[in-house]
Automatic annotation (TrEMBL), chain A:
Extent of the signal sequence: none
Keyword list, A-Z: ATP-binding, Nucleotide-binding, Translocase, Transport
Alphabetical list of NCBIfam families matching this protein: 3a0107s01c2
UniProt name for this protein: Phosphate import ATP-binding protein PstB
UniProt cross-references to Pfam families, sorted A to Z: ABC_tran
Organism this protein belongs to: Glutamicibacter nicotianae (Arthrobacter nicotianae)
Automatic annotation (TrEMBL), chain B:
Transmembrane segment boundaries: 33-55, 61-80, 92-113, 161-181, 193-220, 226-243, 275-296, 348-370
ABC transmembrane type-1 domain span: 155-366
InterPro entries in alphabetical order: MetI-like, MetI-like_sf, Phosphate_PstA, Phosphate_transprt_permease
SUPFAM superfamilies in the record: MetI-like
Taxonomic lineage of the native organism: Bacteria, Bacillati, Actinomycetota, Actinomycetes, Micrococcales
Signal peptide: none
Localization (cell): Cell membrane
Record keywords: Cell membrane, Membrane, Phosphate transport, Transmembrane, Transmembrane helix, Transport
NCBIfam families: 3a0107s02c
Biased amino acid composition, Low complexity: 1-12
PROSITE patterns reported in the protein's UniProt record: ABC_TM1
Annotated stretches, region: Disordered: 1-22
Membership in a protein family: Belongs to the binding-protein-dependent transport system permease family. CysTW subfamily.
Protein name as annotated: Phosphate transport system permease protein PstA
Length: 259, 379
């Protein structure tokens, strides 16, 4: 299922403003890649271009190529909806649908698209997805209760369950733990390690320890100044980035002398 | 003396605080009964002052209120300080404003109940004015028998015309709001629509009635008066309200929910239909119900579009119809029997009571609908 992502010289714009410039990166399948960097350096913006969520914002557009196993996401005639069903996304703040039960939240990707699913298939999918998100044991007795009644950490795992229920090839996570307490964060990090067996995971994080703990490779983004575009400074194995970076800026950032 | 006490205390234990007579953080405080005493005093002085100028209830209330406001704030200032005095003055001013606002409401309810209850019975509810002439009313008054004739035709007319107005304006209004919020952000067309909706909000109801009458007159020939024409006139009044309330509700749906849905590979129209609208439906439903409550009491646009009828007409596509407001208007302005107007007045008040009850029921329904559709809480 997991697929690789290759980005060639990607420029990301908000209307006329160039937000991210000249990013080229190769993300291996079944790996965890972390994006780190100071606030406003464009790492979240870049992440959103990987499943065409960037263009949901008015004026958002890109130049360059993003290849998913060799297929250009931005090629002519590509439907962004197809792209998003193959590349799932988990957001910074947990956002379960308030009108739906826990079960319906997991099935949202199926039900919102109006696909018919038999009750036994639905139950199996709910259990599999919730088990995949390490949430099954906590919610199996209250699947019909509203998803908004869960704790923040549980809500975030519910959002992950909802994402893996549509069986994507890649899962993007935009600071998934920034609104969570340390125990919930640990639960999510454990989950990311398990997800790696089946999916390609890309995670944006402000927490460098987290990047060091969960990721195989790390990309450091930086920005020269306000109003300037963000750039990919260095991309390497996580161990190399944290212990032996090639660039001075990376070393400054990971050792805390900057940002 | 007090120094000595402190010294004695300090020998037994250094940690005990010095004994003081008065807390330096505290200020004077009026006892609780004081404010009631001031109120009673104000009422007595108010009554006396009112008697001097010839006693009546209005001047008595006004004098008492003013004396109480002044006395309460002055006494509080003296006893508790300047800030608390100001606080007391504004508190009682706000209470006064509240009472002034509630008086007309209570008075209207009381009057309508008092004058409407005698005429409110099953005969009034379930019969029309068909065949009720001035002669019948004269006989009723002469013999002292119960009033004949009712508002059934007007109740049905009100329900049918409002139902059709709702059927027209809810889809139009909701779809307009969906366009404005979901598709038209920042576009010239949406700015134009917002402007015209604002203009429509201010259209006088009689103008909406004339528009509908003229519009259908053009198509169906002059004197094309029927229920559906009135429904169109009312929907002209309802659409801007529905657009506005739906727009506000859709705007407060968090963008995160839309993004969550897009990220699952759900199309935009399905996102709007299955995520955005269900999240906002409770607010939309109560907005729609309040819009209905606003137009259900319109009189002028109904008169020029549906005319007036005394018989039961359940077909909005043919013949004239009455609604409760036009029924009241006609009973008061042209009583059925010009010499004995009492039966007509009684019918008018009973119809007014019925109309208030219908509007109240709609408001309660709006709350019920809102709580039923509200996103469920609980664990």
């Amino acid at each position: 299922m997991a697929k690789r992502i290759d980005v060639n010289d990607l420029n990301v714009y908000y209307s006329k403003f160039l937000a991210v410039e000249g990013v080229s990166i190769n993300i291996e399948p079944k790996s965890v890649t972390a994006f780190i960097g100071p606030s406003g350096c464009g790492k979240s913006t870049f992440l959103r271009t990987l499943n065409r969520m960037h263009e949901v914002i008015p004026g958002g557009r890109v130049e360059g190529q993003v290849l998913l196993d060799g297929d250009d996401l931005y090629g002519a005639g590509v439907d962004p909806v197809t792209v998003r069903s193959q590349i799932g996304m988990v957001f910074q703040r947990p956002n379960p649908f308030p009108t739906m039960s826990i079960k319906d939240n997991v099935l949202a990707g199926v039900k919102l698209n109006g696909k018919k699913i038999s009750k036994s298939d639905a139950d199996a999918l709910v259990e599999k997805s919730l088990r995949g998100a390490n949430l099954w044991n906590e919610v199996k007795d209250r699947l019909d209760k509203p998803g908004s009644g869960l704790s923040g950490g549980q809500q975030q795992r519910l959002c992950i369950a909802r994402t893996i229920a549509v069986k994507p090839d890649v899962i993007l996570m935009d600071e998934p733990c920034s609104a969570l307490d340390p125990i919930s964060t640990l639960a999510i990090e454990d989950l990311i390690n398990e997800l790696k067996n089946d999916y390609t995971v890309v995670i944006v994080t402000h927490n460098m320890q987290q990047a060091a703990r969960v990721s195989d490779k790390t990309a450091f983004f930086n920005i020269a100044g306000t109003g300037k575009p963000g750039k990919l400074i260095e991309y390497n194995d996580t161990a190399a980035i944290f212990s032996n970076p090639e660039q001075k800026a990376t070393e400054d950032y990971v050792s805390g002398r900057f940002g | 003396m007090s120094t000595m006490t402190t010294n004695q205390n300090s020998t037994s234990g250094n940690l005990t605080p010095p004994v003081r007579k008065r807390n330096s953080l505290a200020k004077g405080k009026l006892p609780k009964w004081a404010i009631w005493a001031i109120a009673a005093g104000s009422i007595i002085i108010g009554a006396a002052a009112s008697t001097l100028t010839g006693f009546n209830v209005a001047s008595f209330a006004i004098y008492s209120a003013i004396i109480f406001l002044v006395a309460a704030s002055v006494i509080t200032t003296v006893a508790e300080g300047k800030r608390r005095g100001k606080n007391a003055m504004w508190t009682y001013l706000i209470y006064a404003a509240f009472i002034v606002a509630v008086i007309p409401l209570v008075s209207v309810l009381y009057t309508v109940l008092e004058k409407g209850m005698p005429g409110m019975n099953s005969h009034f509810l379930f019969s029309s004015m068909n065949g009720v002439t001035g002669a019948v009313d004269n006989e009723t008054v002469a013999n002292g028998t119960p009033v004949v004739g009712g508002a059934y035709h007007a109740v049905m007319g009100t329900l049918l015309i409002t139902l059709w107005a709702t059927l027209i304006s809810v889809p139009v209004g909701m779809l307009t709001a969906v366009y404005l919020v979901e598709y038209g952000q920042g576009k010239a067309l949406s700015k134009a629509i917002t402007f015209f909706v604002d203009v429509m909000t201010g259209i006088p109801s009689i103008v909406a009635g004339l528009f509908a009458a003229a519009f259908f007159g053009m198509i169906l020939g002059p004197n094309a008066r029927m229920g559906i024409v009135a429904a169109v006139a009312l929907s002209v009044l309802m659409i801007p309200t529905v657009v506005r309330s739906t727009e506000e509700m859709l705007k407060i749906v968090p963008n995160e929910l839309r993004e969550a849905s897009y990220a699952l590979g759900v199309r935009r129209w399905r996102t709007i239909l299955k995520v955005v609208i269900p999240t906002a439906i409770s607010g939309i439903a109560s907005g729609v119900t309040l819009a209905i409550a606003r137009v259900i009491g319109e009189t002028a646009p109904i008169l020029v579009t549906a005319g007036i009828a005394s018989n039961i007409n359940l077909n909005v596509f043919a013949n004239w119809m009455s609604t409760l407001p036009t029924f009241i208007y006609y009973q008061i302005l042209t009583p059925t029997s010009p010499t004995n107007i009492d039966p007509s007045v009684q019918r008018a008040w009973a119809a007014a009571l019925l109309l208030i009850l219908m509007v109240m029921a709609l408001n309660l329904l709006a709350r019920l609908v809102a709580s039923i559709f509200a996103p469920k809480k609980g664990r």
